[in-house]
Write a structure and sequence with these properties.
By secondary structure, this protein is of the alpha/beta class. The chain has a seven-stranded mixed beta sheet. The radius of gyration is 20 Å and the shape is globular.
């Protein structure tokens, strides 16, 4: 049987339940260590199917899915996976270069990115926003004095971060708008999405955003700026126009229905059609 201490930090191990230890042991035994990224996705899909989740019915089954120990495994995985570590380093370096005073990582998981930023930028206060953080994640954050978990956004921030969040929620525009209210005008919202059928918990009704996200953000009042790792920063220009953003999103959904049959190039075609409709004031 695998010794969990080979793969799980002692600080984390002492905060795990018996069932969580059992699950991790079974996974590490199966893969002789951490799974690959594709195997990680397959484990998520397995949990989704076992719980009979329905992407068009956001109910208790999906709440149970996000409490499943596969997400504990995912939190540990991204701190051991080479590409995930590199992605976080690029994001952290960009954040540090902005010299922010306050940063919030919305839906920041195990807090690895926040800890990476906090360790290098001791004068920056970083909050990881999660209403139900794992006790192990809190214990890890406590080792970095300027990082803490909070249940909701508190006050105003220079930078907001949301990586791999909005493809999981039924109303991304509403959530972006709600959270961006806590961003200073001129502040940056760093967002990384994957509106694609990589795993079952990416809601298919949102895939059209892959062709229109930047346009929707710009219409809302969040101007696309720097590309950062696999995401993009958006500068808050002033008051947010959610109604106009929803109007563009509605058009984007219609366009996606027209082009979803294309075997390739859907994102490019969708962006061209959206731009054309915008120019002729059809949106």
């Amino acid at each position: 049987m695998i010794d969990l201490l080979k793969f799980v930090p002692s600080t984390v191990l002492q905060h795990l339940s018996a069932s969580e230890k059992k699950y991790l042991t079974e996974v590490f035994d199966l893969f002789d260590g951490y799974p690959s990224i594709e195997q990680m996705w397959a484990l998520m899909d397995q949990s989704w199917v076992e719980l009979k989740c329905d992407p068009f019915d956001i109910d208790e089954r999906i709440n149970c899915f996000y409490r499943h120990p596969v997400w504990l495994l995912n939190g540990l995985f991204v701190e051991a996976h080479e590409q995930s570590i590199e992605n976080r380093k690029v994001i952290a370096d960009w954040v540090i270069c902005q010299q922010p005073t306050r940063v919030a990582d919305f839906g920041g998981g195990f807090g690895g990115l926040a800890r990476m930023i906090g360790a290098v930028s001791p004068n920056t206060q970083i909050e990881v926003v999660d209403p139900h953080p794992h006790p192990a994640a809190i214990a890890l954050a406590n080792k970095t004095r300027n990082v803490r978990f909070v249940p909701e956004l508190t006050g105003k921030y220079d930078i907001l971060i949301a990586t791999d969040v909005f493809e999981h929620v039924p109303d991304p525009i509403g959530l972006v708008s709600e959270t961006a209210e806590s961003l200073y005008v001129g502040g940056q919202y760093l967002i990384a999405n994957c509106f694609a059928p990589v795993i079952l918990c990416h809601l298919p009704q949102l895939f059209h955003f892959n062709t229109s996200w930047d346009t929707i953000m710009r219409t809302m009042g969040l101007e696309p700026s720097a590309s950062v790792s696999y995401g993009r920063a958006y500068e808050k220009k002033g008051e947010l126009d959610v109604l106009s953003a929803r109007k563009v999103a509605k058009c984007s959904a219609r366009i996606y229905r027209w082009i979803s049959w294309l075997p390739r190039g859907r994102s490019h075609v969708g962006r061209l059609l959206l731009a054309a409709l915008s120019k002729c004031n059809a949106i």
